[in-house]
Design brief:
Blueprint lengths: L8 H14 L7 E4 L6 H12 L2 E4 H11 L2 H11 L10 H7 L9 E4 L5 H13 L6 E6 L5 H6 L1 E4 L4 E4 L26 H15 L1 H8 L3 E5 L4 H12 L5
Parallel strand pairs: 1-3, 1-4, 2-3, 4-7
Antiparallel strand pairs: 5-6
Helix pairs in contact: 3-4
Length: about 240
């Protein structure tokens, strides 16, 4: 058992309290759907913490693989640098392996996957083998013309996944994470040129999964162009509905 020396008692008690609260909330598997800059990265860490779900962001997972120089990372790097979608076979295994972690027992929060209706069907098959399914698919609706400003101003704290924006949601200290005091980064692919290619891919390949989940009667949409607090309110109304 890992030593608890160095942990503050109040932090440990707060974590126990958080997990107790999580146990009173519905276990569920959730898919977040939306273009780059739609706000998924801002909301996902909050949803993860409040519902004690396992947040699987394929973008972050692939970036980690690239940084680690794994075989998967090397294959994905050139594709990601061009702003194109990573092929299914490089992603399915990543999700499957990650979902076996104990922290995923209460459910998955998927951000950036599935990106196509084919991936959605493969995800369903994978979850069916585990005796579960996707319970909710949430679309973040944003007009294309405001996404460039959102993406170019985005700053990220890689260890936690917390995101900021230099204009709409700035950190208390420039380029410093509010919680840890660690440095924020601007991702290399957060620029207008890459965004335009990613938006083309999103509309051509990802949008059809909206119909896929609509046919299953689990798709709900939110207006992600509102202020963060209003987006949060819309999400909570969906998240805390009972699962049929």
């Amino acid at each position: 058992m890992a030593s608890l020396r160095g942990f503050r008692l109040e932090d440990l008690l707060a974590e126990v309290h958080r997990r107790q609260l999580c146990s009173t909330k519905p276990s569920q598997n959730i898919v977040l759907i939306g273009p780059p800059g739609s706000g998924k990265g801002t909301q996902a860490p909050r949803i993860r913490d409040e519902l004690c779900l396992c947040h699987l962001s394929t973008g972050d997972m692939l970036r980690d693989a690239v940084e680690a120089g794994t075989e998967l990372g090397k294959k994905a790097k050139a594709i990601m640098d061009r702003g194109e979608l990573v092929p299914d076979e490089l992603v399915i295994g990543l999700i499957d392996n990650a979902s076996k972690s104990p922290e995923c027992d209460r459910g998955l929060l998927l951000d950036g996957f599935p990106r196509t209706d084919v991936q959605a069907a493969k995800l369903d098959n994978m979850l069916k083998e585990k005796g579960t399914t996707i319970h909710k698919a949430i679309e973040f609706k944003v007009n294309d013309d405001i996404l460039i400003e959102r993406v170019e101003g985005r700053r990220v704290h890689p260890p936690s996944g917390r995101t900021y924006h230099v204009k709409f949601n700035p950190p208390k200290v420039d380029m410093i994470d509010d919680v840890t005091g660690e440095a924020l980064i601007q991702r290399k692919d957060d620029n207008a040129e890459v965004l335009k290619r990613r938006m083309t891919a999103y509309h051509n390949q990802t949008a059809p999964i909206l119909q896929y989940y609509q046919q299953r009667s689990i798709l709900q949409s939110i207006d992600a162009m509102q202020k963060i607090g209003q987006v949060t309110q819309q999400l909570d109304e969906i998240l805390y509905k009972s699962i049929v």
